[in-house]
Amino acid sequence: MNLALPIAKLEAWIEETLRASGAPGGAVLLERNGEPLLARGFGHRDAEASLPAEVDTVFGVGSITKSFTALAILLLEEDGKLSTTDAVTSHLPDLRLPGSAEATITLHHLLTHTAGLPPLPSRHYAWLSQDDLEPFERERLARLAPRPPIRSFDELIAFLGDHAFELHAAPGAQFSYSNEGYNLLGAIVERGSGQTFPEFVRERILAPCGMTRSSLDLRFTLSLPNVTRLYVREGGEVVASTNWFNPVCWAAAGGLRSTAPDLARFFRMLAGGGLIGGVRVAAPETIARMTTAHAPSWNGSCYGYGVTRSDLHGHVLVQHGGGHKGVAAMAGCAQADGLVCVVLTNFGEAPPSKIWAGCMRTALGLPLGPLFEAPEPIILPAEALRSFVGVYRSSEGADLEVSVDEGGALVVSGGGLSGPAQPIADDAIRYTVAGETVTVRFFRLAGDGFSHAFTGGRLVKRATAPAPAG
Predict the structure, then answer these.
(1) HSE-up of 152 (CA within 13 Å, CB side)?
(2) How many CB atoms lie within 10 A of CB 449?
(3) Distance (Å, whole) CA 13 – CA 354
(4) What is the mean pLDDT of the chain?
(5) Is the terminal CB of the chain with fewer CB neighbours within 10 Å at N or C?
(6) How confident is residue 469, by pLDDT bands cut at 50, 70 and 90?
């Protein structure tokens, strides 16, 4: 067994990494050729009741759900009910988008996050649909411009037609991660199959894969034993939440709850070309298309259909992460090496990608380190540094401000945090937050100056221009 680090030391590193992040608990499964190298829970699924997290504990998986949504679309293509080259409006004729773009956006564009959709505020109006919101959640959502909650895929489609926005680029031109795009795919699954999205995913993916503790139905999840509580940071303290993020119209973008062994079965199925335990879930050609590098995304990686494809020292990795309230997760495989790894946590500020990279690197005989190694900083003249300056505002709520301090150094602020940044190219900077290095790349999509920042996988439009020099 070629491990760069003994399993006991890897476990100790995971424990310390979770503890340092403030995460109450998590579960990690690392396997080679179906045999576990590491499979255990860390910390607590319920800290208040002193209940330990276990490898079989159910956690939210956030946007790892998109892997299931993409496969659902491809299974409908296998059934002859659609094609990824179809215009989205051929399946959603009531969808209205800016200009004539709706006629040119295809299912392929939605699957690869290249439709040109900017980050939009629909998540917040979808969240308003929940009757069990906590007081602090109601307080935050009360700041939104008044409009009815979004309670269904149909109401999301109506929202997109009523909400004023522009595409940031022509369909197919630029990658920009879009939750709305994947929820539209969920609507297409429902209309194409005649089933609800959760029913189709359960029948065609979860059940054939043997994922018995996974569901898009929160009622089913809460009926199971050994389900985590969710934790959030309020007033500087990590506290338990009383509810789950569970809007109906967000199911296709991030509604799945699962366990580490269940998700390992899904990625083992992908690595097996659609076959697991003698059960054929999808055709080999379908899985090959899903895991093909279709669109350059970030850090040298590419997006396929619901998965990211990247290279780690010659090893091809297929993975996806996810996070929202009380959820931070990462799962994927290295097919040629027979490796599958799943990291699930119950705290949105936990670093699952750091832990996942550490596990995969250890199993591949590589030293601990990040999945993507940031380039070394470079020196740029003051004028070039000032070209980054501005506020980049996302309608999803994640703002990024870049400034230059009195000493001429770059500073990045966002999410209540502020820290130094360094240029790594004439169009990119990096900074460190929560122990992880973040790269921001800047784009000129309108005029001569930088118009957008690419951060968190999204193109975020500049809201303010840099101040005049001098």
Answers:
(1) 5
(2) 12
(3) 11
(4) 93
(5) C
(6) very low
Give the whole-angstrom CA distance, residue 276 versus residue 132. Answer: 38
For residue 419, the model assigns a pLDDT of 85
Contact 241, 326 (CB under 8 A): yes
What tokens appear for 425 in the block?
Answer: 């190219």
For 161-210, the pLDDT digits (tens) are 999 888 998 999 999 999 999 999 999 999 999 999 999 999 999 999 99
Four-residue CA torsion sign, 192, 196, 198, 201: negative
CA atoms within 13 A on the CB side of 37: 25
Residue type present at position 375: P
Query: Which of the four pLDDT bands, split at 50, 70 and 90, describes residue 465?
Result: low
Kindly compute the dihedral angle of the four CA atoms of residues 216, 324, 361, 375, in this order, to the nearest 10 degrees.
Answer: 140
Angle at alpha carbon of residue 11, lines to 435 and 270, rounded to 5°: 85
Between 355 and 236, name the one with better pLDDT: 355
Distance of CA 310 to the CA centre of its chain: 15
Here the tokens at position 85 are: 């080259």
Q: Which has the higher per-residue pLDDT, 434 or 25?
A: 25
Task: Measure Cα distances from 59 to 125, 302, 464 in Å.
Answer: 24, 27, 39
Q: What is the pLDDT of residues 67-83, one digit of tens each?
A: 999 999 999 999 999 99
What predicted TM-score, i.e. pTM, was given to this entire model?
0.95
Single-letter residue type at 334: A
Percentage of the chain with pLDDT > 90? 83
